[in-house]
Amino acid sequence: MATNLEDRTRANPADPVSVAVHLRPPKRAGLEERFAATDPEPGLELTKNPRVARLLRDRKFQFLLILPNQIIFWTVIFVGVLGTAVPGLNFGAAITWYVWFCLVFVMMVVVGRAWCAMCPFGGFAEWIQRRTLFRRTQKALGLGLKFPEPLARIGFLIPVGSFLLLTWIEEFFNIAGPGNPADTAWMVVGIVSSALLFFLVFERRTFCRYICPLTTLIGTVGSMGSVAGFRTKDREVCLACKTKDCMRGGENGFGCPWYTWPGSADSNLSCGLCTECYKSCPEGNVGLFLQRPLTSVVAPRRRRADVAWGVAMLWGLVVYQQFNATNVFAAMDGWLNKHLYFPHYPNPVDYLAVIAAVTLATAGIAWLLGKTLGRGEIAVTHPESFVDRTSRFRAFFVPMAYGLIPVVGADYFARQLPKFFKHSARVVPAVAHIAGFSSNHSPIYDFHILSNGWIVVVQVAIIVVGTAAAAWATWRIAGRELVPVSRNALGIRLATLGVVLSCGAAASVLYVLMHAAS
Amino acid sequence: MAITLIEAQASSTDRPEVHVLVDRCAGCQECVVRCPVEALDMDTERWVAVADEKLCVGCRQCERTCPFSAIVVTGPVLAGLRTTTAVVHPEPLLADVTEVRRGITTWEQALAEAARCLNCPDPTCVRGCPAHNDIPGFISALAKGDLPKAHEVLARTSVLPDICSRVCNQSAQCEGSCSWSLAGEAPVAIGLLERFIADSYAVPPPVRGEDADLSVAIVGAGPGGIGAAWALTEAGAAVTVYEKDPSPAGLLGWGIPDFTLPEQVANRPWRQLQEAGVELRCGVEVDASGLEHLLAEHDAVVVATGASVPVRLPIPGADLEGVTDATTFLKTARAAFSEEGGVEEWRGRNGLAAEAFGEERPHVLVLGAGNTAMDVARTARRLGLDATCVDWLDERFSLARPDELEEARQEGVRVRFSRTVKAIEGEGGRVAKALLLTTSQEEAGRPPKVLEAEPPEAVAVDLVVMAMGYRADPAVAAALPGTPVRRESHGVPDREWSASGLLANPASAFSFHNPVGKLALGREVGLQAAALPVRERLFVIGDALVGPATVVEAMAQGKRAAAAIMAARPLRPGHPSRRGSRRVLVCFASEGGHTERTARTAADELSRKGHHVQVLPIDKVGPKELAAADLLLVGTWVKGFVVAKVGPPPEVQAWLEALPRLGGLPVGLFCSYGVNPRSTLARMAAVIERQGAKVVATAALRQGGGRLDAIDFSRRVLAGAREIESAEVAAAV
Question: How do the domains of chain A map onto residue ranges?
């Protein structure tokens, strides 16, 4: 590179290092178009409010979010192991399965990764890794290794695998039924231990980003949410920044534990809302922004194959969890267990087969749409990248899968409702039971917020809302991303709309069948 | 040579491969803006970095600078062959102090080596150089054949290119920080190129600047004093240098033997300085009371007395005859070499006369194997002695220059690492043998373990020279508050240094696994401290400031102190043109905005009165900003609940405690409170006064209080500062 020595001799001799530094200008071509649809509006910046700003800048903020959950989940562990075996009276089982899981979904749909910001599992491990509860420390405990590149290349797929494994274990031991409360406790111990192990071996929040069973679910369903996460206020400032304290860590904050740069974030998929970038930015150029619901589903230009496959597999799992309540499934599972000498439900073969069938069916529909409606040849680019590789199939499958996110999210949410509406009141006697009061004869113990019939109505209503959201999102996505690669613009939009509506209808019907079977 | 490099690249089938982990690449472009060969670009559709492997040379700068570790480079480092130069040992060695290490002699060689420089956009070598020479800048000029321009680039930061290129340990500084070195390959021979420039074209003398009406005294004529005197002379100050020795140059004169630094090179700076009008008073020793006199006579005083007291190991037998120190050894040996028959006389004087030993050569044991020890041992060889160096460090973590170590061994010096001396035993009051113990060291920078359980090894010796380095004279240090400054960087490293990638790969084999980034950050502490007076108008530089260090550091600190003096333009009490406008720094820690508003109101008032005012939040205020101020206002919000735990917030407390010496700087303190400030200001004052500042006014202002209070405070601060000056004048009179 040519050196402009004249420029260097004119520079300030009192600061000799900066005289010699001649960084290249960052690339700006295509910047406007790339982020136009995903950048939140300045008016939706929450941190403009001085009280919010002060709160988020306080290093104790995340600690105080985590602390109550930490107390609750250590109580879950101790009470789960040492407390009563009656699930409804055991605080550990009651709070986890009647309340917590449902609330996590509410948070996902509205806020995104709010749970990640307050998660006691990652939070606890992070305290150990950072050797502090909330201070900005310099030296991390542990090996600080990078997550192996071949595994990191498949992005959000490993967590889907860990979610499928955990769900199967949960079904096998009837943990979430809930069954024996001690099983719930041991499951939590398992998650905390795994988190701690990964935090001590790998750098940052590698566990949360690449391993945590919930991360893909929260990331994808959370992208429907109205919180855009921490984003740049002015991208030019970020591009001109020579230090990237938000990524490396600065005086007041750690580098982003989630491998996200506010300067290029185009969705809330990987923003853990931990506030570290906000604290560390020396220019005050990072803000917490709201966005219109579904923006992170519809607007991002970069579509990721790992997210698409993750959505399809999560869809397969939730369908399995509905289908397994039907008599047909019970007969099939029984037959398989008998012939494969497997002790009891759920047989891993039908578990995986149903999930794979739904996943492949979803992908197959996309393949068919590409085959029948696709236009011309689609160049294969980025062949080395699982996340970004393009092909005719992917050109249809990936955007279509993004469009399905609201249906999948609604289905998961709806599935948590029966336990909440029927048994969440049991938390009250369960709390009292820790102190030696109350029993399952308490009137609150059997108090149902809604009857079974109404619960199905609410479930179907949620599916209808989710399907409507998915239909809207799919229509927009198809218009922008599928129409240019299709022969028939209206045809592809209607076809993908049809897929979404069919999925919504299938989920609704399954809820009715589940209700009938129970 | 340049052609060879290109051919080597072109013919190679084994090229570096760049793997961008697209899942993790956030498109921040840290790699793109820093890649020396423009091999990285952006895929704007995906917003991730993409690499053109055809351009990549494998320097791994991208790996080191990626904040998320999203780039992995595999394959070879296409660094090309490093130029080597001749090392010519005199034959025989006896009494011959001809320079051993030769420089680059031909333009062809120089251009070939210059072509290896990548001209990195964020050159880590510049950060690794203690003086922050614009290394790619002077190499570019050299590559164009423009030696005056190369000197012009060098002169901005160094006045000793001919000396530093000979005596610097480049492997732990610029060359250890070169991108090639950080990638595990041989770095650009920066020292050789600098020497080629300095040897091929005379180092330009200082050009006296327009009279600045400023008188500065410098105590000590070593490299620190040279740096300060040079910069002050060029800025137009009247400089008087006081040197206790009969001749100037300090360590350059007596401490570094001619075979490393020839006398005519060492004398060059003082010849030029005196020609430029610097007044040199040799043979004048300045003690603590002498400093007070100098402060009364001059507008500023720079203490550059160095570290000339040799470190002696407190071991049994250390007081035997035949146990000496490096200073004595080197000074007497230098004198011996300069006289006809001096060597024989020296040996006789030290009980090592040839007649007493016959065919055998007396054996000198040198304690230490750093650069001073190498000088001693090689000098001993030239005195006709056998020499062994022992050092308790592991050889992998040696503090010596690699080439110096190699040359010493070529000259027959035995260097034994992982050994330490337990005791020296004598016969008839004279040293006879040394007992050595084995040590073990696993990590650079960690003190080795002495394996006491093993039986000691007895080594027959005729002379023992303690060459573990030097320390500052304690009597001088006592008169200089806050010294010595430890060259250790604490807390969050400078963000731009982290971003440069220098701190990411601290253990290059080329630099003896020394953490070059960490060392460089430590040196920065010394450089910044040099710009701040330890008392009003009293600056300390070089080894007197930071303890035993290097020639280049002392010189750089001298230049930095000179720049600070010229920026502050301090005037002695009673000087007719004392103080017009001030340079005021107003710094604040604001939570709800009240403190910032007060700070800005006070700043506006000071500005209105014609002072130069800078307003900054405290987290943006470092030594550089403080050095540029002659009046400081510090404001904070008050933490606490009504009356509980009321005081300055922890970040302000930590900031105050981390302040460098403020050398009599007048300070105004204020706080904005909601209910009750309690002892907030008193606590702040206690901390800041410990750092040498003088609190001239304080104000506790209620949140949302009147603008007039802030204006009144700023006026009181000015009045307080004037009072201090009046008191000084009275004292001087």
Answer: 33-301, 305-517
B323-470 has which fold? FAD/NAD(P)-binding domain (3.50.50)
Looking at the predicted structure, is the pLDDT value of residue A116 above 60?
yes
Residue B153 forms contact with A (CB below 8 Å): yes
User: Residue B354's closest CA among B326, B384, B382, B324?
Assistant: B384
Mutate which: B28, B55, B173, B619, vs A, most A CBs within 10 A: B28
Q: Which CATH architecture has domain B2-74?
A: 2-Layer Sandwich (3.30)
- Residue B132 near chain A (CB below 8 Å): yes
Q: Read off the pLDDT of residues A212-262 as tens digits, 9 standing for 90 and up.
A: 999 999 999 999 999 999 999 999 999 999 999 999 998 889 999 999 999
CB atoms within 10 A of CB B90: 15
Helix (H, G, I), strand (E, B) or coil at B583: strand
Query: Is 0.85 exceeded by the ipTM?
Result: yes
B positions 4-43 inside 8 Å of A (CB): 19, 21-24, 26-30, 32-38, 41-42
Chain B residues whose beta carbon lies within 8 Å of the beta carbon of residue A20: 123, 126, 132, 134-137
**Chain B window 336-395: which residues touch A at a Cβ cutoff of 8 Å?**
none
Of B46, B72, B153, the CB nearest to A149: B72
Least confident of A45-49, B211-215, B514-518, B538-542: B514-518
Are B619 and A251 in contact (CB < 8 Å)?
yes
d(CA A504, CA A315): 11
Provide the whole-model pTM.
0.85
Give the pLDDT confidence of A132-164 residue by residue, as tens digits.
999 999 889 999 999 998 899 899 999 999 999
Half-sphere exposure of residue B673, counting CA atoms within 13 Å on the CB side? 21
Burial A125-153 (b: 16+ CB within 10 A, else e): bbbebbeeebebeeebebeeebbeeeebb
How many contacts, defined by CB atoms under 8 Å, are there between A and B? 166
Architecture of the domain spanning B583-732: 3-Layer(aba) Sandwich (3.40)
> What is the spatial distance between Cα B417 and Cα B379, in angstroms, rounded to a whole number?
20
Q: What is the pLDDT of residues A45-67, one digit of tens each?
A: 999 999 999 999 999 999 999 99
